[in-house]
Amino acid sequence: MAEFHSTLYDILWLLLAAVVAVPVLQRFGVPSVLGYLAAGAALGPYTPGVVIDVESTLPLAEFGVVFLLFAIGLELPLSRLRTMRRYIFGLGALQVLVTATVLGGLAFALGLSPKAAVLVGVTLAFSSTATVLAILVERNEAVTQTGRVSIAVLIFQDLAVVPVLALLPLLAGTGHDIGTALGLALAKACVAMALIFVLGRYVVRPLYGFIAARRTSEVFTAANLLLVLTVAWVTEMAGMSMALGAFLAGLLLADSPYRHQVEADIDPFRGLLLGLFFMTVGMSVDLPFVAQNLLLVLAVTLGLLAVKALVLTGLARLLRVDWATVLRVGLLLAQGGEFAFVVFGKAGALGVLDHTTTQTLTATVALSMILTPLLSSTGRRWSKKLKRRMGLDLVPTGTEEVQQHVIIAGYGRVGRTIAGLLQEHGVPYVALDLDAERVAQARAEGLPVFYGDVSQAGVLRSIGIDRARAVIVTVNNARGAERAVGAVHDHAPGLPIIARAHDLRQQGVLRTAGAAQVVPEAIEVSFQMAGLALRSMGIADDIIERCLAGHRSSGYGTLESGNDGAGHR
């Protein structure tokens, strides 16, 4: 019980520091990542005041990276991943190999033993998945060219974690045959990944269909958490990183109709736990050591950033990546990665690295991560200037799956009819519905229909609400339609919203919620029937149309004293 209270005490202080520090620093233009790092440093063992036990909160913090990688996997269906294979296995592999060689050579030249130099070179070749992806997600750049290239390199780095973890005990002298150990590690990794994809295709997706059909939101959320944590656990048992397992779990659902709702459900967990991760990074920085060895830490940090940026820039140009993207990717991935904290800690315990070297490298990696938002902003400015000088469009091209599209909330009879007419005129659309069977049928026909609740902000972001041209709400439920209209209006106040209403009373509610235009179906059916009756009596079409147009232009106000269609329909 005492241990529980101690952990709860630590978590409360972490939450308080985040709630206070991050909004205050953001007010002065400081990125949220730096806010979390600063809050963590304030609670660390190297600053006066409250001290948090890092070990008690680290397991929770690691889940932040896990959920972030899961969300990225959701954004990368296998079809898109195949198009990135040149960057994953080309640029990613070359980056790790060349960077590790250069940094390892420099470490050996500075006096480290061959074993230690190899370990340092390989470990520093990795970048911070959490820091980079947090910046890309925060700026809505995960699917831009910069985001795609960066994510491809990070994917290969996560794959390369397997041989590095197998290499560590061998360098410490606890292993015998390096080739055998690496072969076993890679074999376990291949078996684990094959098992994940087989189970995903034949078990996970059918299970999601069954759960979605029950329409129980809390069970759907529980299924998401179960999937992420189970796959992460399997990959960790196979000697890989939990983050890579989470990424594979995301890939399982990336091509499914449920991915938008899944992304919305895990978004709160991802943001909170990722912030906790950055706070633990801040707590790990030995500030007195950094102060005493400031020049050394700064020199090593600047050297690391320069080498990684130059190597990655040169390799990306060899693969014919445009200069504007090269500049951004080189600076964005120049930092050390969170994986280094684990490796250097274990290396120090095993005696591969001495205490001073371990602390210097740990401080270097932490400082490089702290500088990443600044480097990213610098790369962004340079990229824009270069694009202007070269006469290129400042808006990224070939980055989003769909742009200027119409979002259809509800894919029943009305939604299907609207989608068909939009498709007939070449207007792109994305439809959402909560009927799993209906969605599955539409997906089988190759239509852009997904499972998700349009009233959730996370779902709206995942289907590109910021790039949409209009939203049509056809939800056949008064309360659901009101929630949907309100959510869209809150997220994108200037976006045209066209909504379906049953009658004039609901029309007023939806207009108040933010709909630009509302079509009361009962009244419109009455208009159609009255028009047919008047035509059969010989009244001219133009007279009928003027009459109906007058009622519509008044917002159907002239009919409010009569039957509003709420009765017989």
Q: Would you write up a description of this structure?
A:
- The protein contains 24 helices and 6 strands.
- By secondary structure, it is mainly alpha-helical.
- It has 2 domains: 389 residues, Up-down Bundle (Na+/H+ antiporter like fold), CATH 1.20.1530; 120 residues, NAD(P)-binding Rossmann-like Domain (Rossmann fold).
- It has a 6-stranded parallel β-sheet, sandwiched between helices.
- The longest helix has 37 residues.
- The C terminus is likely disordered.
What is the overall pLDDT average? 79
Quickly name the level 1 CATH class of the largest domain. Mainly Alpha
CATH topology-level name of the largest domain: Na+/H+ antiporter like fold
How big a fraction of the residues is strand? under 5%
Uncertain parts: 391-400, 561-569
- Provide the CATH architecture of the largest domain: Up-down Bundle
Task: Show the helix and strand layout.
Elements: H1 2-27, H2 32-43, H3 54-74, H4 78-83, H5 85-109, H6 114-124, H7 129-138, H8 145-171, H9 178-214, H10 217-237, H11 242-254, H12 259-283, H13 287-292, H14 294-318, H15 323-332, H16 339-350, H17 355-390, E1 406-409, H18 413-424, E2 429-433, H19 436-444, E3 449-451, H20 457-462, E4 470-473, H21 478-491, E5 497-501, H22 504-513, E6 517-520, H23 521-536, H24 541-553
Helix pairs in contact: 1-2, 2-12, 3-7, 3-11, 3-12, 5-6, 5-8, 5-14, 6-8, 7-8, 8-9, 8-15, 8-16, 9-10, 9-11, 10-11, 14-15, 14-17, 15-17, 16-17, 21-22, 23-24
Family: Belongs to the monovalent cation:proton antiporter 2 (CPA2) transporter (TC 2.A.37) family.
Transmembrane segments: 6-26, 58-76, 88-110, 116-137, 149-172, 178-204, 295-319, 331-353, 359-379
Subcellular location: Endomembrane system
